[in-house]
Amino acid sequence: MRSPDPLRRMLPLLEVRWSRAVRAVALGTLALGSSVALAAVSAWLIARASQMPPVLQLSVAVVSVRAFGIGRGVFRYLERLASHDVALRGMAALRANLYDALTRGPVTGVVALRRGDLLARVGADVDAVGDVVVRALVPTGVAAVLGLGSVALVGAFLPVAGLALLGCLLLAGVLAPCLAARSAADVERRSADARAEVTARSLELLEDGQQLRVAGRLDQRLAGLRAADARLAAATDDGARSGALAAAVGTGAQLLAVVCSLLLGIPATLAGTLPPVELAVVVLTPLAVFEATQALPAAAVQLRRSREAARRIVELLPSCELSGSAPRPRGRGPDTGAVLELRSVAAGWDGTTAVAGVDLDLRPGCVVALAGPSGVGKTTLLLTTAGLLPPVAGTVTGDDALFVAEDGHLFGTTVLENLRLARADVTPDEACAALADVGLDGWLATLPDGLDTLLGTGAADVSGGERRRLLVARALLSPARVLLVDEPAEHLDAATADALVRTLAEHARTTGRAVVVASHRLAPLDVADEVLLLGRDDAVAHAGDTPATVVARGTHADLLGSEQAYAWASSQELTPTP
Amino acid sequence: MKPLDPRLLRRARAARAYVVLTALLGAAAAGLVVVQAFAIAHALGPVVISTSDGVTVPFEPVWRWVGVLAGVLVARAGVAWAQERFAQRAAPRVVGELREQVVAHAVLLGPRASGAGDPAAVATLATRGLDDLEPYLVRYLPQLLLTALVTPVLVLVVLGVDWVSAVVLAATIPLVPLFMWLVGVMTAGTSERRLRTIERLGAQVLDLLAGLPTLRAFGRETGPGARVRALGEASRRATMGTLRVAFLSGMVLELLTTLSVAVVAVGVGLRLVHGGMGLVPAIAVLVLAPEVYLPLRRVGAEFHASTDGLAAAERAFAVLETPVPHGCEGARGPLEGTPVGHEPAHSEVPALAGSTLVLDGVTVRAGERGVEAPSGLSARIPLGTGRPGGGRVVALRGPSGAGKSTAALVLLGLLHPDSGRVLLEPAPAELSDAGDLGGSRSSDSSLDLAAVDPASWWSHVTWVPQRPSLPPGTVRDVVTDGREVPDDALAAAAATTGLDTVVAGLPDGWDTRTGLGGVGLSVGQRQRVALTAALLTGAERPLVVLDEPTAHLDARGEQVVLDTVRAWRDAGRTVVVVAHRASLLALADQVVDVEAREVTHAFA
């Protein structure tokens, strides 16, 4: 069996107030009801007029026809406002609830998610879930109420014609939407592979197009994209068959209702059981009723789309609903005087172990470096040390530690506010000092508004190197006793990178904090009190199968003497002459 | 924006056929609606009259008209089926045609295209943005054509039956766009301001979410929760303000169309009472009146599909109409229409062995940052002779942001310098292969790279960028590029680059398939594949340009790069390396310093 409908799981998070939803459906029914009533009353008016009664007998009908003519537009306007209000409230609530869930849950959910994915889910997917109100729930409610009302109206004149109308409404309002939804599902299923291929090929061409030109392979790749697009078109075409059938059923059902009314109504009128004026109403009313069902195929497709979006959002949630990871046991290591202790710690993701058997005491003012090839698990170990990942084995005890990610986020606010994230009461002077520490004083001087310059989209652009240094400056300002800095050298040239590591070390010694630096560049590690070299026995063949361990530890000088590979790697990266 | 952009028809063949077919189906639909109205009128009218007056009319024709109506039912269902079918068939084809053109053109715009050709924007457009055209083509365009066809036909038919009603209908139709335009004009300013507010609020929420890992790292994640809620509430209020205004035009449309149907119905009814009109034409007019407005109303309902679709098309045309920088037209896509600007002046590159590549004051402005990187770069780079011992390693050195990679792009002819030039000096016939670097030679015999057919230049160059692209296929095919390569040569190259250990660990060895873009290989492994492939390119490519990988390269990976560069030099090729590390500089025979320069104040 399938798991419960994700859309239903999402409903409580939308915090929908049902009175508002009912109001939207009621207004929608009044709007379309006006147009059905317009058709019914005009039919009655014309048929009755053809019998040439005194004009006064028609005056009520004349007035109501005009009133219905106005009512439709006005009610429709009110309905659209009401349903959009429900939807927008839902989206805002869902976004806020999602945010809360993400902050409560273990950080793995957030860290593991690629940034683009998270934004897509919270942006477009939340919108798609909200759309279900405007595009699916309200139209369906309106169609149901209005359809039954019309069946009752026609049935009051000629019960069997009412039944025929009901049948035709079911064709247009249930069969056609089912076909449309199936078509959408078919298209998606059949074209998923082709679509992924088209996307991959397009991106490859755009990202690597210049290489392909130089290598003379551009035309060949463009032909590949064309072929993939042709496959996508063919797959879409196959899947869309039932969609065309839905369109035919929807159109046909309306006329079928008219034909049925004629076939049933004319004999009844001839037999004298149905007055001729009522025959006109029975025949002409169905023409207006089907406007309500016309929106339903699209509603069914939307329902499906919203459910898919809800499913993707739910994927974010299960881990979050387990409520947060237990806070780390606090308190200083009693014997060692360390601010943070790692005892036989194994670190990893989702049951796998990347690094095992790490023991480490971080004392105030000490600088420790993690070295080792990329992918060995340096970042994972830092995350575990920071308490952002639960250790797979072993214990981490001590003060809170601040993890400074390689791809830390700069918020779309001022430079100063970004720095104040570390500590709310950072003064402008402190901020300037921190920026100067990381060598950004020159950059600060070029900013139009200094510390009040806006960063982020549409504002001052920050290069990769400036960004790294800003993140480090922010870390320096935080009150955390332990800083865990991941790859400070990335995106920086060697001289700047080495200077940044030295700045961190000096900072640790003058302020009495502990600093751990993960780096694949070894040259600046001579400032560290201790270097932990992580590695695996066989790094090439079975990478990932066995957890990495600390293969050697000591000062930079020790390791240069004792570890051949370390010495060799270090010799390869002499600082370039300035 | 035009509701149907003629450029769409010009650029996409599938769109032309689709529009013609849709117009034909629209004409058929118009005819069927007319027949339907008269069939209902002729079936219903006589029955009402006869039973009211007690006069018997022949019922044979009544049943015949019911039969006609059944026929219309089948035909209209058929037309609806065909329309949907063709729409679903044409839309992905149109999107595909545009996608290929956009991608092909964006590639020709070069590595530093900005504006419409900005790679990130084009990537979004090509992968998702163009899909907005599908609802436009499937839903909006047919209704638009129906409005153009059905509405006038039906008004003419009504005119033939009852001219008063026709006047009412004809008078209201122009009012619809007029009022919608008026509403639009009156509200445009407010909507745009509000839309900007909404976008800003949305961006703030996304910013908070994107920064969630960072907020958590700082332990500051709980405060912003309330902020997300407040931003959502503010965004809702702003959006509702926009919608209150935006939906006004919809209300005008509904009001005008429904009210005029009501006016027609009342008018027809009053004329019936006074005997000015028969019941059959009255019913026909009553059935036809809403049909006149139906396509127009649906056009209004699909307005969003139209704006989104047209905006996507507009973005695509903006890319396609961005002129290709001078001299970069080589290797244009096969679909590219007219060969505009394909100067015949472009000459073939002569044999390069032993000639010299001269950079003369090459300067490239870096975006809007007021920086020239490189600035005034001059150097003479002798090209390899193709014989052992005739090779050379030239390192481009400079701090990050100095323009080393940019200089490499200029050398490759992918980027044109904002000032300065790149010349090819032919090998001096009288001089030996050893080359006289200081030789003062007239530049008459030199060839400006800008005047060279790029494809011809590229046939002499091997380029290994930081993130090499790998075609799909087996590792062997990828490395050999489909050529016959002796096993020992392959093995030797693989040993140099360390690919042999990678291959040994792969499930099918050399025959392991790698997906599009080399899925399944790590960055380092891909690097080795690319280096091996570049090693195996022939000596007919005397120039190798290598952008040294910086990220995620450990000491072992670095050694591979050094060994490969040495192998190239030994084979008599010139290797221009963008050096980020000391190890490569130590290996270089010639070091070219690349410098950037601030020019912000030069314009003040």
Short account of what is shown:
Chain A has 578 residues and is an alpha/beta fold.
3D structure, described in words:
The complex is a heterodimer of chains A (578) and B (604). Residues 320-327, 330-334 and 538-544 of chain A have low confidence and may be disordered. By secondary structure, chain A is α/β, with parallel strands linked by helices. In chain A, the strands form 2 sheets. A 6-stranded mixed beta sheet of chain A has the order 5-6-7-3-8-9, with helices on both faces. Chain A folds into 2 domains: 6-321, ABC transporter transmembrane region fold (Up-down Bundle); 340-571, Rossmann fold, CATH 3.40.50.300. Chain A is 63% helix and 9% strand. With 604 residues, chain B is of the alpha/beta class. Among the domains of chain B are: 1-153 and 295-324, no CATH class; 356-427 and 445-603, P-loop containing nucleotide triphosphate hydrolases (Rossmann fold). Helices cover 58% and strands 9% of the residues of chain B. Chain B is built from 18 helices and 14 strands. A 5-stranded parallel beta sheet of chain B has the order 8-11-12-5-13, sandwiched between helices. In chain B, strands 4-1-6-7 form a 4-stranded antiparallel beta sheet, with helices on one face. In chain B, helix 2 (13-53) runs parallel beside helix 5 (133-161) and helix 3 (60-108) runs parallel beside helix 10. The longest helix of chain B is centred in the middle third of the chain and has 51 residues, at 223-273. In chain B, 50% of the residues are buried. At the A-B interface, helix 2, helix 3, helix 4, helix 5 and helix 6 of A face helix 2, helix 3, helix 4, helix 6 and helix 7 of B.
Quick tags:
heterodimer, A: 578 residues, alpha/beta, ABC transporter transmembrane region fold, Rossmann fold, three-stranded antiparallel sheet, elongated, B: 604 residues, five-stranded parallel sheet, 18 helices
Total strand segments of chain B:
14
- CATH architecture label name of the largest domain in chain A: Up-down Bundle
Approximate strand percentage of chain B: 5-15%
Give the helices and strands of chain A as they follow along the chain. Answer: HHHHHHHHHHHHEEEHEEHHHHEHEEEHH
- Summing up helix and strand content along with how strands pair, one would put the structural category of chain A as alpha/beta
* Approximate shape of chain B: elongated
How many strands, which pairing sense, and closed or not: the largest β-sheet of chain B?
5 strands, parallel
Task: Give the low-pLDDT segments of chain A.
Answer: 320-327, 330-334, 538-544
